[in-house]
Amino acid sequence: MASVSATVxxxxxxxxxSQNSLxxxxxxxxxxxxxxxxxxxxVAQMKYQDPLEPTSxxxxxxxxxxxxxxxxxxxxxxTMELSRYSSFVGKEVIIESTDSGGKTSExxxxxxFVTFEDGKAYFSIDGNLYAAKDMVTAISSExxxxxxxxxxxxxxIKDLPSIDSVNIKDxxxxxxxxxxxxxxxSDYQKGFxxxxxxxxxxxxxxxxxxxxxxxxxxxxxxxxxxxxxxxxGEPIVSAVAGKEAAEExxxxxxxxxxxxxxxx
Length: 264
Fold this sequence. Notes:
Elements lengths: L6 E3 L2 E3 L2 H15 L3 H13 L9 H30 L5 E7 L5 E7 L2 E5 L2 E6 L2 E4 L3 E5 L1 H19 L8 H17 L2 H4 L4 H69 L1
Antiparallel strand pairs: 1-2, 3-4, 3-8, 5-6, 6-7
C-alpha cells in the first residue's frame, strides 16, 4: 500500500484527508473480531483447559465447524466487497473522513483503481489512498458532465465585457456559441445552469441582434448611396458625349458649306 507522509506545521503534525481515512479504517480493523481472533481464542481455550475436566472432542469439532463457517463468511464478504467497490473504478466519488479532533474533510475525484489489504478496500484518487467505506456519494457521468457544462457556461458569461462594450467582431462568435450550446442542452442539463447566467446570455443575445441589425442597415444605406452615385453619373457622361457629337456634326456641316461657297 502506498505510504502517506505527514506534514508538520507550527510544530504540529497536520494530517491529510487520506491519512484520516486510512487511520479510521485501520482503527476499526484492529478493533473488530475476525477469523484470526476466533482461531486464537480456540487455541487459547485448548491450551489452558482444565486437565481434570478436558473439553470433549465433540465440542472441539463443533467449534472448528463454527470457525470454518466464520472463515467462509469472511471470504464471501471479501469477494462481495471486491466486486462492489471495483465497479467504482473510473467513476467520480466523494470521500468524507473525520480526524481525531472531529474535523471533517471532503475529497472529490475519480477512482483510478481499487486495492485491497487485510480484507479492506481502498480507493486511489489523485495518487492518494482513501478507505472505500468513507465514500458518501457516487456521482454519475451524466451528472458530472452536466455540472461541468454549467461551470464552463458560467465562465464564458463572466469573461464577457459589460453589455455596452460588446461588439460583433470580438464577441459575436462567443455569444452565438453560448446560444447554440444552450439550445443543444437537454432539460436535465439546463437544470444545472444558474438562472442569472441564462438571463445574462439572453441580454447579450439581444444586444448582439441589435448590433447586427444596425450593421445590416448601415451596409444597406452604403450600398444605396453607392448605387445612387452610379445612376447620377450616367446622364453627365451622356450629355458630354452629346455635346461632342453636336460639335462634330456642326464642323461637318460647316465644311460642306465652305465647299459649296468655293464652288460658287
